[in-house]
Amino acid sequence: MAFKIYTKTGDEGQTALFGGKRLPKSHLRIECYGTVDELNSFIGLVRDCAEDGHIRTVLFEIQNRLFDLGANLATDPAKNLPIPSLTQSDLQLLENEIDAMEETLPSLKNFILPGGHPTVSHCHVARCVCRRAERLVVALNMDEPVSPEVLKYLNRLSDYLFVLARKIGQNLGANEVVWKGR
Q1: What torsion do the CA atoms of 109, 96, 65, 53 make, to the nearest 10 degrees?
Q2: Is residue 7 part of a domain?
Q3: What is the pTM of this model?
Q4: Has residue 5 got a pLDDT over 90?
Q5: Rg for the chain (alpha carbons), in Å?
Q6: Between the CA of residue 137 and those of 29, 153, 161, what are the distances in Å?
């Protein structure tokens, strides 16, 4: 039997965490994993636009880790349920990718504006959504403990997305748009 997409259990503005606890859909925890889902969608857009096979592979891996991260956030912390975890190797992948891309990029001498090519711009949007997710998770962590790996991963991922935007721009021959302050 196939599952129905609608359950009608959220019609009054509540949803359930893994473990059964019900929360209002406006709860900070729900906002956190909803924003991670939004981030995952934007990363999917970048992956669909990216021409480089290696970048596409890494973005696919990131999307899978974001599902793990979202499951972590969507689990009732009062229950001792098994949840997918992020590992040091997940962080190391992001750091290795950042280091490899930076080896081929010119050093930054100015602030750069998002833009230069649609794929670069999509990558910057993903970076901004990642930063918002990070801010929300930091706020949640002030009230309820959040896995330190979740915070580290989001922080490192936003750095990765910034460098990726530069690398994609370089691969496409797009000029970086330098900020010109007054």
Answers
A1: 90
A2: no
A3: 0.92
A4: no
A5: 18
A6: 8, 11, 18
